[in-house]
Amino acid sequence: MPAxxxxxxxxxxxxxxxxxxxxCATIQAPLPPEPIGEVEPAVEPEGPEFVPVVRYxxxxxxxxxxxxxxxxxxxxxxxxxxxxxARATVGDGLRHVLKxxxxxxxxxxxxxxxxxxxxxxxxxxxxxxxxxxxxxxTLAGPAWELHTDDRMRQVCFERPGDSPGAEPAPVPPAADxxxxxxxxxxxx
Length: 188
Prior knowledge:
By secondary structure, the chain is α+β, with helices and mostly antiparallel strands. The protein has a domain at 71-158. It has helices spanning 6-22, 68-71, 90-98, 112-117, 132-140, 174-177, and strands spanning 53-55, 61-63, 77-81, 104-105, 126-131, 145-149, 154-158. Strands 4-7-6 form a 3-stranded mixed β-sheet, with helices on one face. A two-stranded antiparallel ribbon has the order 1-2. Strands 3-5 form a two-stranded antiparallel ribbon. Helix 3 packs antiparallel against helix 5 (132-140). The chain is elongated, with a radius of gyration of 36 Å. This is Integrating conjugative element protein pill, pfgi-1. It comes from Azoarcus taiwanensis.
């Protein structure tokens, strides 16, 4: 076997490296974007809303406008622990949550007395942090709707469908409410 000159060996190795590095690269054309549909242009406000600010300290500017929780008191964030009373009721819990909120509890509806007399669940002894509205809805439960009288700052609850002048929904007799099915093979 003839001896190969080292420079040829080096050139062959470089050529092999160049071929391996280049490979068979193919470039795919980018896919066109899919049409999303018609997009309505964003409505630009008529002009910038002026919010007055004042320097409060050396590096802080404060807006001179009430926060959302100050405008709508039911949006205020609360973190409440109920007094530990073994006989606390839902009515006691509602009154305690509303204590410094600016609202008071409606005492006029007769159907609500049923809600107020229910025992306060242990899961409701600590509520928050959450909005006042969510705390009231949590205490009342899903069977009651929350209504507010902003003029009198009262919070009222009523059952859905119960409105002044509406007749109560008929309750089916116990025998009609439960269906029984015979068990094949008898009972042991």
